[in-house]
Each structure stands twice: as structure tokens, then as C-alpha cells.
Model the fold of this input.
Amino acid sequence: MRKIILFFFLCFLILIFERNISFAKVLTLEEISAQIEILKTKILQLQKLLGELKNRKIYLASEKLEQGDTLLVKVEGSPEKISGQFDSKEIDFLKFADGWLGIIGIDAKKKPGKYNLFINFPDGSHFKKEINIVERKFPIQEFPITKEYPTPSKAMEDISKTKLTLDKIFSIYTKVIYFDQSFIYPLEEIEIGGLSFGEILKSKNFTIQHLGVDLKASRDTPIYAVNDGVVHFSENLGTYGKTLIIDHGFGIFSFYCHLNKFKVLKGKRVKRGDIIGYSGSTGYATASHLHFSMKVNRTSIDPLRFIGILEKEMIK
Done:
């Protein structure tokens, strides 16, 4: 449709030019030359626009997602920065390779349904797509009991306190993208050894969702930075034990808990694959392991799926 409109617009310009020529007897040579130059400029602009439209490609990793998934949008063929919205929230596209990349987290608690994705181009054109978010069936189990946390109420009390600290950290938005390649896993071997992502813990009076994944890791197993970034937090954090958080830029954070010890501290610039600490069982933990989480613009996403989809799509 857009190409047809542009075609008729070009025809309209040519008709105007021909009309001027038909009245050439009342135009000077300079005026005719000026009209010709204007027409040439318009034709070149139209050719450039048609070329961009021809080369423009929009790729969605999926149009049907579950709670906790990551929506990845790749746009090629647009030399100028684009903008967009998903569920009426702005998407900050980042320049990557030969195009633009939008990373949108679908929160674990997102209401299932259909949501609109919009992409806006500098030439005034738009792309719209309906994205279907479906319910994910999360496992349910009883609150675990530990020596430090013998009752669910004690655990919930501490979790509520640490939530304020975490909310403040994850509300930070760094307008710098520290990474330029896909993410890697935080351990050499990845095996779920405790609670899975989104698992629901229930007791008589409390219900809470586990917004990370517990990975098998014996005491002092090396933990790796999943990508380039800056260490934003490295402290003991109540139920989370020794906790380390890396800011990767553009609202993306990786979150490592229950460490036995840190190898890097707050403010340290780290590279993908650097050892950042060693696993342990500090905080609310029944055994040594790594609790690993990811946040994308404050949304809680499945970290293993996040790494998997970016690894698959960013190398295409």
C-alpha cells in the first residue's frame, strides 16, 4: 500500500512538472531549471525511501509467549533510531550489529491476554502486531524450613524488608548498553537443583512466588558474569544471603544469591565470563546452590529462557 501511495505521489509531481512545461512561454529558463532540480530532488528522496522500505525487515522471536518469557524484536533496514510501545509502555531500542534490538520482559505475574506491539519509524510509518501472552502453569509447594527461618512468617518478614532495597536497585535505568554479544550461563554446568522459576511457595497464611531459579552448585563453585556490566550491589541481604547484582545497561540486571564469598565488589566493571564469586548457602537456603535471577525493566523473567532466546537470536 505504501509503495502504491508513493507511486501516485511521484506521478502527481510529474504532472505538475509537465503542467509547468506547458506554460513554458510564461516561465524563464531559470524558473524551468529550478523546477527540474526540485523534481530531481523529490525523485531521489522517493528512491531512497523505497530502498529503505525494500530492505526493512522486522523479526519477532515469537508471537505467542508465556508468563516469564522474553519478547525479542529485531529490526533491520532502518538507519535512523526507531521507537515503539508494548502494552502502552515505551520500548528503548538499542543499536546492535546492522539493526535495532528491542528486549521486552514478560513478567511472571503478567495477566494472560492479547497485547499490542507498535514500532514507529522516522519516516512516519508504523508496524503493529498483536502478541498473545498465555498462562504458565507454575509448580506449587510448601515453604521450606531452615534453622535460620523456622517459620514462614519469619522468612516473609525478612523478604519484605529486602524487597524495598531490591525495588530501589531495579528501578535504576542506565542509558548505556555495556554488552555487545549474547549472554552466557552463570555456571559451567546448568542443572536445576531446587526451586524452578515461578514456583509458588504456600503456607497456611502466606503465598510467595520464586522469581529466579535454583541451580546445583556445591560450595565454592565459581560463578561467572553472564555478560559485561557494572557491579551495582555486593552485600549480605537477609534471606538472599551474600548477594551480587550486575547492571548490564538499558534496565537489564543479573542477580546472584546465597554466595559464600565475593570476588568482585560494587563499582567493579566486569566482562562476560569473569569469575564474580563462589557459591554457598548463606541466607534462606537449605543447602549450597546458586539462586540466579534476571530483571528486564523491573520485570521478573525466566533467566534461563532469557539467555537461551538471546543466544539463539542475537547470533543470526
The chain has three domains: 2-55, 57-134, 140-314. The chain is about 25% helix and 35% strand. Residues 20-24 have pLDDT under 50 and may be disordered. Residues 140-314 form a domain with the Glucose Permease (Domain IIA) fold (CATH 2.70.70.10).
